[in-house]
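Quick start: read one record
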Amino acid sequence: MSKFQKGNLILFIRFVVVLFCLLYLGSGYPFAQERGVVHKGQNSIEKTDLVIQYKTEESVISRDRRFSVSGSTLIYSHKGRQMMLYDLPVPCKAVIEYKPTARGNPRAVKITILQKLPGAATGWVAPQPE
């Protein structure tokens, strides 16, 4: 292979690599992004980050929203271990995946703790009246 052909081959490979990077990786690493809404027909699962301030045996409560919780709701600690609702420390920062409902509170499908906040306690704590 001559020196000229070898130079063109290297230039072509560089061009392909740059083109790949611009087209695929230029949109913000799509393989690493999480989607806010996952559509599954009529049953869509939405995701939100919030601070859980209170919990009851049937719900978790943030400043402006209440999510229904059932025995099928998956709850994970910040270390990735599954836990019971009773052991969920409040207050805490968390990601909640939920199914919206036509009326009433959305139903939590999965809760993942991101960070415990100062004063976090497990067990059942009644919300303070406002």
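Residues 40 and 100 are 13 Å apart (CA to CA).
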